[in-house]
Amino acid sequence: MSDASTTKSGGIPNPLAWIGRGTLALFAEIGRLSLFSGRTALSALIPPWNLTQLWKQIIAIGFYSLPVVGLSAVFIGAALALNIYTGGNRFGAEQFVPNIVVLGITRELGATITGLMLAGRVTAGIAAEIGAMKVTEQIDALKTLSANPFRYLYAPRFLAAALTLPILVLIADIIGVMGGWLVSVYALDFDSTTYLRNTIDFLTMEDVVVGLIKAVIFGMVIALMGCYQGSKSSAGATGVGRAATLSMVGAAVLVLAANYILSTFFVQIGI
Amino acid sequence: MTQPILELKGVQKGFGSNHVLRGVDIDVAPGRSLVVLGGSGSGKSVMLKNALGLMTPDAGKILFDGKDVTKDQGKAREAMRSRVGMLFQSGALFDSLTVWENVAFRLLNADGMKRTDAKEQAVETLKKVRLGASVADLRPAEISGGMQKRVALARAIITEPDLIFFDEPTTGLDPITADAINDLIIEQVKALGAAAVTITHDMASARKVADEIAMLFEGKIIWRGPASEIDRSGNDHVDQFVHGRADGPIQPAL
């Protein structure tokens, strides 16, 4: 399609019109997402809560993510220990493996890997479920039955993700450190007792808390992206599939961006 | 004259350059059954969603029991919806809930009824649509399409509404099951004394359930009359639709 606003006189596409349209669309999308996030957060914070739905989502988001989080954490911890050992070996700093593993896992990798794994498993699942509900008119049916989708569908998922992510991250931290310990003791000939003592001595409460605060934010991002993309899913299987893909990609990028912003903030305030 | 339970006055709704409703004027009196006919893409579902408050009209008014509800939100909208039942085209049953939880959804969530009482009422309502208690604990995916429509009908009537909307209630059903659903609709609507608005393009269904029939074409109601006069409407559009002819003023939606 070409019109005066999008083409120059010779029919060549006008790049300024493209940029303008893209910018407007971006701001409109940010606005819609912000409004949706605000309504979801308000519905999550203000009672009454739908405890039945909340419990179902805690099981679906938290409990059923345990295997994938545990497996990811053990391999990340193990690979981290190997790489730190190899790098540290170049200047005789192998003994710092337990310290750097525990620091890297608790402050950074435990939360980030859990966030990314759940962006795949949970966000896409939420988007597909809500998208399917939308295209089969179940969300309209909720409204006609005087149930607010923000309270019945989105708030329980938002709360469940924000509550369970810190628990999952804590578990990922423990399993990730265990992965590093396993490789260090059985492949790199570290003394088990010394490794564990160094880990415990070096670990501070702040390191753990930093990861847990990140986890709460990641949980919110993961649930919001799934609910938002699902709620605006268009008709048909293609629309639902697209919503699942967009939600997963969006959540993964936002988790990484939020991780950087939060890390910067924690460094700035000295923890 | 009796005050209509539902009135649409000059309702317009568009999506971008697509003007779906161009000034719909229609009303339905308490206890009457109105069927709105229209081809695919004629705006029947959009009209119904506007009437239910699932969409907001660009212009015009919607009055429920004499009160303007066009822009109602929150409690005011809930008050209106508590008096309205809706049977969706696809049934729109919640996959994650059992049949009885679907039927009793409003009782459990909006009215805060105890589960034991709600289940008892749901099973009673299922009986009204000829479904036994044995289906109550099944999931919607475990029952047939015809049974799903009955469950959806039970969900629409459980709170004894004053007005029930039926969106293509017989679509996707074989003629015998469709006729059984029509019979149930007539029986239950009469038993409740409720008004009914049905949108359909199934002429057999329209003839059976309607007291009055209206025809929606190009976003406006172009004919309305008693169901008994549908074959003598004197309107070319209605005649073409009633007889299912490809030739005529209505172009097939290809």
UniProtKB/TrEMBL annotation, chain A:
Family, similarity comment: Belongs to the MlaE permease family.
Bilayer topology annotation: Multi-pass membrane protein
Entry's transmembrane regions: 58-82, 158-188, 208-228, 240-262
Protein's UniProt name: ABC transporter permease
Keywords: Cell inner membrane, Cell membrane, Membrane, Transmembrane, Transmembrane helix, Transport
InterPro entries from the UniProt entry: ABC_MlaE_roteobac, Permease_MalE
Subcellular location: Cell inner membrane; Membrane
Matches recorded under Pfam families: MlaE
Lineage per the UniProt record: Bacteria, Pseudomonadati, Pseudomonadota, Alphaproteobacteria, Hyphomonadales
Function: Could be part of an ABC transporter complex.
Superkingdom classification of source: Bacteria
UniProtKB/TrEMBL annotation, chain B:
Lineage, top ranks: Bacteria, Pseudomonadati, Pseudomonadota, Alphaproteobacteria, Hyphomonadales
GO molecular function, one term: ATP binding
UniProt cross-references to SMART domains, sorted A to Z: AAA
PROSITE patterns linked to this entry: ABC_TRANSPORTER_1, ABC_TRANSPORTER_2
Domain ABC transporter, chain residue ranges per copy: 6-243
Species of the source: Henriciella marina
Cross-referenced Pfam families: ABC_tran
Protein name (record): ATP-binding cassette domain-containing protein
Keyword terms of this UniProt record: ATP-binding, Nucleotide-binding, Transport
